[in-house]
Amino acid sequence: MAKLIIPTPLRKFTENQSALESNGSTVIEAMQDLANEYPNLKKHIFDDHGKIRNFIRIYLGNDDIQSLQNENTPVADDSVISIIPAIAGGTNN
Questions:
Q1: C-alpha dihedral over 30, 34, 35, 39, to 10 degrees?
Q2: How far does CA 12 lie from the centroid of its chain?
Q3: CB-count exposure of residue 56 (10 Å: 0-12, 13-18, 19+)
Q4: N or C: which end of the chain has fewer CB within 10 A?
């Protein structure tokens, strides 16, 4: 089973779990599996068309899936998938 790393801002939707396992054979299947298990997380990961939101970055190991096969990137049993939400803020001087 692939391991999904849940970032701190999204842990409130996964019962404060920092890592979960998924049976998905691709990144999109793993993410859908996560959203099905934790329905309150779905709107934070997926847009209205079922696509991963463009401000969410997904890494398979050290590689951004955009440099691989995007959502269709294959996932092995020993894969580590990291979800990285965009962080904005700061001040204008």
A1: 170
A2: 15
A3: middle
A4: C
**Six token digits for residue 80:** 């580590």
Q: Which of 66, 74, 77 is nearest to 22 (CA)?
A: 77
Residue 59 in tokens: 């890494």
Domains and CATH numbers, the chain: 2-85 (3.10.20.30)
Is the whole model's pTM more than 0.85, yes or no? yes
Residues 2 and 20: their CA atoms lie apart, in Å, by: 8
- Decide if 51 contacts 40 (C-beta within 8 A): no
